């Protein structure tokens, strides 16, 4: 991480309710600026460029405990000041040390346009660092750029009036949504504000200028909002947001399937793309602000299910102020890296931002201690606790906000059933064995996913019968859960493809395979991830140790060959350290021929679990088909 790192949060976030540029200062870095100019010096530098001074009240930094904090405060003040001088109405500024790393200082400065806010931060760094030539060369172009992007006073007042009425508002004519306007059938170049969501949206054109002449009239703006939405509840569509370390995509797909079967036209974002009313719109990671906004601005959808990963929360924020239902499935050791998110506690804090913004129901996995710790942050009308192991009394004792609801697995007529306890009423929903994706209950993580999905649908007011109809038709396969417990038939042995890529995911996978009856050997083809720290790769391999008869350690398939680095020896070493006999390990390269080599070693009655990455997912089916043809 550099000494000064900045990125724009486009909407409400875990940091603030308004869009801000987050600046992270690493005070350990040798490149961190040493020495902080005083108030008079800052104003002298501003005056040398014929810029108005910061007012004395703003320049007071003597109350701050360290020179580092004084530098951070001045950086934020200057970034805000430069935006204001360019006509951008920004106000919010916060400077503090991180709660998770004392060496990191956070500066949060409001922006009305992300690119202008980012440029202002860069200019402020130049000014404080006495880079006079660079500042002088860049400030005139900054002013020109910023002046051309001054927010419409009309839209600002209308958005403010909408916010006071809890009506969702998205400015479509500023980054990152401006580039998507034409793709959504809107006119480029206009200053557009969307009020409401999806099929309930209304567009406001602010190109003509203020609502009532020079200077926007807040009363007239409020009247305009009230005319569009006399009842603010009519502006919203149901929004369900899903986060966690493992299971996000599958649970998101499950919830969307339930809503689809119930007659909703559902917009869905996942780390694999966007789907609108059952039709794929894009492929690739869409589980952050841009993907959420693309769904919520589509007039053809009347419900949204939004996978929300940690990176989107950290560096982009949300395209909504509140979701109706917010889920956190689990928090485990993945995406932890030096200089970024460094501890599980910090990762849990990131993911807690989703259920903390739920208005109707927050749904948490009670078997995860990090999820249990999120309870004090909840404000939803109800808290749903999901557990594979805990009793109803234990779940009710966890508390939370509003009504407390328990979703458990219990015995019903000699079978495992998903059961909901709400307001003193016990309600069996369906047998676990009836859900094809659970493999008769053997895949406990799929049982958990189904419980979370059922809870989300029931919390939204759907009938149990609708949940049962949808989940009994939800199968683990290339169509509904691509890359997750996909069984490939037509072979003399059993082949299951899966996406497990971290220690917790591997532990859940081997719990599943341990439950499967197998006539022959159990085989695992695994790979580390080139972008993961080797500690995570090693722990993933060690989680599999002792559960299979033979291991194929293959290289990670790169998106753009050649591989960045070799990871197969890392996995091999970790397995040996965990007690696996070296003769039970084969090290291979990657690609089709490596797959064929592994498949050719399988015998009738064997179970082969073959772990894939995103780069393999699209091609693996065709490769297996080719192997079948070769083997005839």
What order do the helices and strands come in, and which of them pair?
Blueprint: E1 4-9, E2 20-26, H1 39-48, H2 56-59, H3 67-85, E3 93-97, E4 104-110, H4 114-128, H5 132-147, H6 153-164, E5 169-171, E6 192-195, E7 202-205, H7 218-228, E8 239-243, H8 248-261, E9 266-270, E10 273-276, E11 279-283, H9 289-296, E12 303-307, H10 310-315, E13 323-328, H11 344-351, H12 353-356, E14 358-365, H13 369-372, E15 382-386, H14 392-397, E16 403-412, E17 415-422, E18 425-431, H15 444-459, H16 464-471, E19 486-488, E20 494-498, H17 503-515, E21 522-526, H18 534-544, E22 550-554, H19 568-577, E23 585-588, H20 592-600, E24 607-611, H21 614-631
Helix pairs in contact: 3-4, 4-5, 6-7, 8-15, 8-16, 15-16, 17-18, 18-19, 20-21
Could you explain the architecture of this structure?
The structure is a single chain. By secondary structure, the protein is an alpha/beta fold. 35% of the residues lie in helices and 21% in strands. Strands 11-10-9-12-8-13-14-15-16-17-18 form an eleven-stranded mixed beta sheet, with helices on both faces. It has a six-stranded mixed beta sheet with strand order 19-20-24-21-22-23, with helices on both faces. The chain has a four-stranded antiparallel beta sheet with strand order 1-2-4-3. The longest helix is centred in the first third of the chain and has 19 residues, at 67-85. Residues 209-215 have low confidence and may be disordered.
């Amino acid at each position: 991480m550099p000494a000064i790192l900045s990125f724009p949060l486009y909407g409400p976030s875990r940091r603030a309710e308004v869009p801000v540029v987050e600046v992270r200062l690493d005070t350990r870095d040798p490149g961190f600026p040493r020495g902080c100019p005083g108030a008079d010096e800052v104003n002298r530098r501003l005056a040398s460029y014929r810029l108005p001074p910061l007012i004395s009240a703003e320049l007071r930094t003597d109350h701050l405990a360290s020179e580092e904090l004084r530098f951070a405060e001045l950086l934020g003040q200057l970034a805000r000041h430069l935006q204001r001088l360019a006509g951008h109405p920004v106000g919010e500024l916060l400077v503090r040390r991180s709660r998770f790393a004392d060496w990191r200082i956070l500066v949060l400065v409001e922006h009305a346009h992300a690119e202008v806010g980012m440029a202002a931060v860069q200019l402020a760094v130049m000014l404080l660092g006495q880079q006079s030539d660079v500042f002088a060369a860049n400030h005139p172009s900054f002013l020109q750029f910023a002046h051309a992007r001054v927010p419409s006073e009309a839209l600002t007042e209308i958005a403010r009036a909408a916010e006071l009425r809890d009506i969702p508002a998205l400015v479509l004519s500023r980054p990152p949504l401006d580039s998507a306007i034409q793709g959504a059938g809107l006119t480029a170049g206009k200053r557009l504000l969307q009020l409401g969501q999806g099929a309930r949206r209304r567009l406001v054109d602010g190109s003509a200028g203020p609502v009532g002449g020079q200077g926007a009239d807040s009363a007239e703006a409020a009247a305009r909002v009230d005319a569009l939405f006399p009842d603010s509840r009519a502006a919203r569509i149901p929004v369900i947001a899903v986060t966690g370390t493992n299971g996000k995509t599958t649970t998101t797909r499950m919830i969307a399937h339930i809503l689809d079967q119930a007659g909703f036209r559902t917009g869905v974002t996942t780390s694999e793309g966007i789907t609108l009313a059952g039709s794929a719109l894009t492929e690739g990671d869409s589980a952050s602000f841009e993907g959420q906004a693309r769904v919520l601005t589509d007039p053809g959808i009347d419900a949204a299910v939004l996978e929300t990963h940690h990176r989107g929360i950290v560096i982009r924020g949300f395209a909504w102020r509140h979701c109706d239902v917010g889920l956190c499935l689990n928090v485990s050791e993945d995406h932890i890296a030096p200089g970024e998110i460094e501890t599980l506690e910090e990762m849990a804090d990131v993911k807690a931002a989703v259920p903390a913004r739920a208005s109707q129901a927050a749904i948490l996995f009670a078997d995860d201690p990090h999820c249990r710790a999120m309870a004090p942050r909840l404000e939803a009308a109800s808290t749903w606790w999901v557990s594979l192991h805990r009793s109803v009394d234990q779940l009710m004792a966890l508390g939370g906000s509003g009504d407390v609801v328990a979703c458990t697995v219990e015995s019903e007529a000699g079978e495992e059933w998903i059961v909901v306890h709400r307001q003193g009423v016990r309600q069996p929903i369906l047998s676990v064995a009836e859900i094809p994706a659970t493999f008769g209950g053997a895949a406990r993580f799929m049982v958990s996913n189904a419980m979370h999905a059922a809870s989300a649908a029931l919390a939204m007011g759907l009938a149990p019968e609708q949940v049962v109809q949808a989940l009994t038709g939800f199968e683990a396969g290339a169509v509904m859960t691509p890359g997750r417990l996909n069984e490939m038939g037509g072979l003399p042995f059993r082949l299951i493809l899966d996406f497990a890529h971290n220690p917790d995911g591997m532990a859940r996978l081997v719990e599943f395979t341990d439950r499967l009856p197998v006539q022959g050997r159990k085989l695992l083809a695994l790979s580390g991830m080139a972008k993961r720290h080797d500690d995570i790769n090693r722990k993933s391999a060690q989680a599999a140790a002792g559960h299979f008869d033979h291991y194929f350690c293959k290289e990670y398939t790169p998106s753009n060959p050649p591989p960045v680095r070799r990871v197969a020896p890392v996995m091999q070493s970790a397995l040996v350290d965990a007690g696996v006999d070296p003769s039970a390990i084969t090290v291979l390269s990657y690609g089709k021929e490596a797959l064929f080599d592994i498949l050719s070693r399988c015998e009738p009655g064997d179970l082969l679990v073959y772990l894939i990455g995103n780069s393999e997912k699209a091609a693996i089916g065709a490769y297996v088909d080719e192997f079948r043809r070769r083997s005839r």
